[in-house]
Amino acid sequence: MAVTRNASTVWSGDLPSGNGETTFETSGIGTFPVTWRARAEAAEGKTSPEELIAAAHSACFSMALSNVLKEAGHVAEKLETTAEVDFDTSDGPKITEIRLLLKATVPGLENEEFQKHAQTAKEGCPVSVALAAVPSITLDARLS
Q1: pTM for this structure?
Q2: Are 144 and 105 in contact (CB under 8 A)?
Q3: For bias kind Polar residues, which ranges apply (predicted)?
Q4: Structure confidence by residue, pLDDT tens digits, 57-72
């Protein structure tokens, strides 16, 4: 069964001086301003497609890892995932790298097995799969 989620953006003006608003329609959590400057230079209280991708990737990876761990008989006490998304405009705008940074507390799990499970989650996370065209997606996973 497929589930559909919706967001929309309304944009006014040209790219460098225009602005828009992105609305999370399904959840209703809000409407957020977007501009080219916020995307390519300084956020200044606005979001960007790359920040939204980072949010999606960190959430998806955390969910995927919790499931991989459960299937292996482990329950995470805490998974703290940060996704850093690099947007480069020097040779045409593109996402050049994503770094997943994970600090995890998983009682009874040795580091070697933990690393294997984290890598499995990274490769199987639906957002990772959707972002396969990004030249580099790395994972720095640490047990605490």
Answers
A1: 0.95
A2: yes
A3: 1-11, 19-28
A4: 999 999 999 999 999 9
